[in-house]
Write a structure and sequence with these properties.
Layout lengths: L1 E4 L3 E3 L5 E8 L8 E6 L5 E8 L4 E4 L7 E6 L4 E6 L8 E8 L5 E4 L3 E5 L2
Parallel strand pairs: 2-11
Antiparallel strand pairs: 1-3, 3-8, 4-5, 4-9, 5-6, 7-8, 9-10, 9-11
Length: about 120
């Protein structure tokens, strides 16, 4: 099982960013994919999750309206898109597979998002 994320991103304030997480080695539609982020000096922050089988999503209230999770079952890739970026959105964004027990059993390598003018 592997979750491979896209590379580092640099965006201007007010822009949007879209990070991908390509899954391999398992049936993509059988497990939720969650997205989290960690800003410098901060704890892990849960953003939301998607069920790739039907596209059902659940978002953290903090990001409601600014974040969109999608999943492409043809390429086995999950995406997180965050809009209206500010410096407070600078963080490492990570995807994780939620295993059968409900715990995260596989993680992507993380994607650094930098917001700077």
């Amino acid at each position: 099982v592997q979750l491979e994320q896209s590379g580092a991103e640099l965006r201007n304030p007010g822009a949007s960013v879209k990070v991908s997480c390509k899954a391999s080695g398992y049936n993509f539609t059988r497990y939720y994919i969650d997205w989290m982020r960690r800003a410098p000096g901060q704890g892990l922050e849960w953003m939301g999750r998607i069920d790739p089988e039907d596209g059902d999503t659940k978002y953290s209230q903090k990001f409601q309206g600014r974040v969109t999770l999608t999943a492409d079952t043809f390429t086995n890739t999950a995406y997180v898109e965050l809009s209206s970026l500010t410096s407070e959105d600078m963080a490492v964004y990570s995807c994780a597979r939620r295993g059968s027990s409900g715990a995260y059993d596989y993680w992507g390598q993380g994607t650094q998002v930098t917001v700077s003018s």
